[in-house]
Fold these 2 entries.
Entry 1:
Amino acid sequence: MSDPYIRFFEELTLDDVPSVGGKTASLGELARIGAGVLVPDGFAVTAGAYRRTLEDAGAWGPLRAALDGLDPSDVADLQRRGAAARRIVHDAGLPEEIAEGIRGGYRRLREEYGEDVRLAVRSSATAEDLPDVSFAGQHESYLNIGGEAALLEAVRRCFASLFTDRAIHYRFDRGFDHFSVSLSVAVMRMVRADLASSGVLFTLDTESGFRDVVFITGAYGLGENIVQGAVDPDEFLVHKPTFTMGSRAVLRHRLGGKAIQMVLGPVGENPPVRNEPVPDEARQRYCLTDAEVLTLAEEALTIEEHYGRPMDIEWAKDGIDGRIYIVQARPETVASHTSVTSFETFHLGGHGTAIIEGRAVGAKIASGTVRRVRRLADLRDFEAGDVLVAETTTPDWEPVLRKAAAVVTDRGGRTCHAAIVARELGIPAVVGTGTGTADIADGSRVTVSCAEGDTGAVYAGDVPFSVERTDLSGLTRPATKVMVNLADPSVAFSTSFLPVDGVGLARMEFVINQWIGAHPLALLHPERVQDADVRRRLAALTAGSPDGATFFVDRLSEGIGTIAAAFWPKPVVVRMSDFKTNEYAALLGGTGFEPREDNPMLGFRGAARYGHPAYEEGFALECAAIRRVRSEMGLANVIPMIPFVRRVSEADSVLQRMKELGLERGVDGLQVYAMCEIPNNVIQIDAFAARFDGMSIGSNDLTQLTLGVDRDSATVAFDYDERDPGVLELFALAIAGCRRAGIHSGFCGQAPSDYPEVAGFLVRQGIDAISLEPDSVLRTMRYLVTEEDSLEASSAPELLPEPALALPDL
């Protein structure tokens, strides 16, 4: 079209931001990509049309007067002036030339899609979706528009929304002149997501800034509910490197509540959209199939490659044609700016009473006075440093959110408005708590912690916390490989920024406890569970899965896969389950499947369980999870490790059983390690080393069994010390045996994390790798560099002097 005020998407590129704004220019750019990226057709009402409208109406003078001398911190004054500015712009009307151009564009869309086509009319400011500022949610959009009169009115309202209170405040804070920013309007065919689903995706992890995943959220109906935080969406992760190598598997799923869905009303109805409850059966299903998730991931990678930076993308599935459309794409402006040369860690210094939990946003901690906001009038009482507690937040609240120490909401997921703003402001938020506004007392003091993984908590009172900041840019790496011990997949992405060589110990039993919570045999055989209430809880836990076995394998593989993806392609050593019988029994449904033992630490644990009739089915599920991670997910950096192998014949039995279960050492590059944690492992180190690709010394059990000290007993704790000369001698013999056999020697026990001098001793013995707790990695690395610098060639192990131990008063 030759109309200077109307331009269709096919005519636009990113170079047109000054005339059509970032949102619409990006839609034009997307439409040109092709390669399977579908964009609904539409046109832009240009920024020139906005300026022409105000000029013809003589509105510039009154508009400047309305905003002259504005103090955005005065909420009441901001509201009055913003309303006056919006009224001036709206009342300017539309020149007939521009109105006729809009009608012409509408006619073309009706010819393309049919007379009953419904429209989305969306604001697009000329300063919007820039690389460093998003302007997300600052201006208005109007949905389900039909008819010329309604379309023209929606365009006028979009023009006026350049002066929403939140947009005025946002521009002021970021140094934008109100009159240097103009507003364009995107008029586009509305994807019928009301009959299907929609959502938001990011080409990185929004919490950590980890760039090797695509993070997808979705819910039924129109996407406004996700953005506004009105619904808890489904979440999906896809690992980019293995996806591009050909693995077609979703790394991780999380089923959201999806309690409501936004649908369209009849054209002309006010309001044009409404929320309806989602049937229970649909809530138990994901809003996307895995195939659709992978299609979205492929489109996301295409878009990211085209733009050359991490992206924030809105998608919508059309319930009529079944296709997935991209309806917006803009640069991600928060997590992608996370520094990779500095490491900041928040640590709780005490244990408060948890009032409520939800989804953690931002790995930080903050304390403050609760200010519960139930209506707009409550915002006037909000003071700097308060903790905002509300059902949800809206873009109108942004001036107040900038003063908050933290945010807590009843509703919403990791891509809701509260989450997006909290990340941008660098404050912690706990979203989707369900009942936060009811359970947290107004005016009380609380501590909001998002530094403990995916789950955020609100603690009563002021719980002490500290912040550790480390500059990694000048860090010298030791020659000895330093790895990390990890149990919680939810912190894997953030932990991966540590300068380590992989994961030396990923504890499978911790993943089972945190991500599954039920005994594998209870999931496999719920009919054997005697307690009816436990059976009901098992059924609720596995709702949406074909059976308990599938649930266990899927959840375990996703937990392990998340850790493996975080450190890809570095090795991730996954220890097969090493619960003791009392710990297994504590899992949901576990009591009927475990024997009672007087000393579980020395009982039915580790390798002894794996081929035993009492647990062989459980071990088969564990192996199925490892096999799925390596084969389906493509994460071949996973190395299974067998714990507590008492005898050589037991090692042979376990390896044979793994072979039968599809995990044969040497096939498809599979390595198998074993723990070296029993004196017999050291005494027969040559025999054990001949059967495995690596041995990892577990100082906790090896110390216990060498000194004859029950490490669970506080009474004899004075006799438990990994620095004892006899224990150190066994460490040295094990390392020497691995070197003789030419296999990997590692150390994953607690000792080097607690005692740097033990780490130094291991280096002098020629250990290949030391695996540490995350909070001791940097400190121990510095120690090892010093130790290596001063190391003199020696073939004999250097034993540390026996520590002086004080006897307790029994």
Entry 2:
Amino acid sequence: MVIKHQHYRKVQSTQDTARDLIDQSEQTPFLVTAEEQTNGRGRHGRQWISPRGNFFGSLVIRAAVVPLRYGEYSFLVAVVLHETIVKFSDRNVRLKWPNDVLLDGHKCAGILIESHGAQNEFLIIGIGVNLYHAPPEEEVGQPAAVLWPDQKPEGENQKLEEFRKQLITSFAQWHDVYCVQGFENVRTAWLKHTHNLGGQITAQTPQGPQSGIFAGIDAQGNLLLTQGKETIKVTTADVLI
């Protein structure tokens, strides 16, 4: 997989720019990055605070599976981010259901996947990583971590470029695995690196909080939560740390 790269100084959102490029018949796959976002977003319409120096990118591909399985890409990209981040840090990197990356227990990266096209055949995979800056806890409601806390971006920012290249390499390799072998290998890799497997967690669902033992994920990526003798399936929630 050869992934083209389009870089911008400032955009409202790399997701929106990627969507415009699809509409202009840009050939996939491609990656859109920006030095600055003025209106970056995360899941559920939340703002993604985007200070200059961090990584903001949207990877566009033609989906390899039917729409019912698009959620699997969240786990695929989480595994890719884990593999990429550990290349640049020896700190504890873990994955939190459904699509966050934690560094020493604090959120360092997030994933937002949207579909586009006449049959929603294109996936726009938004990736944000706190490389040099983290948003204040009071603005995002949870502590955030930085990959390189004691450094500042300089000049052409060679480290960010190295990060981008590693991310693309890892994605291409894992996407090949996914296309040939299916979701199970991705699921296994995700579970190997997940946060608090077998521990007590609380999932904030649309119907209210559900607490129990984190028992993993099923073959579709749903959260499995053991409550006493029963294991329930959670399809949509935010897991609280």
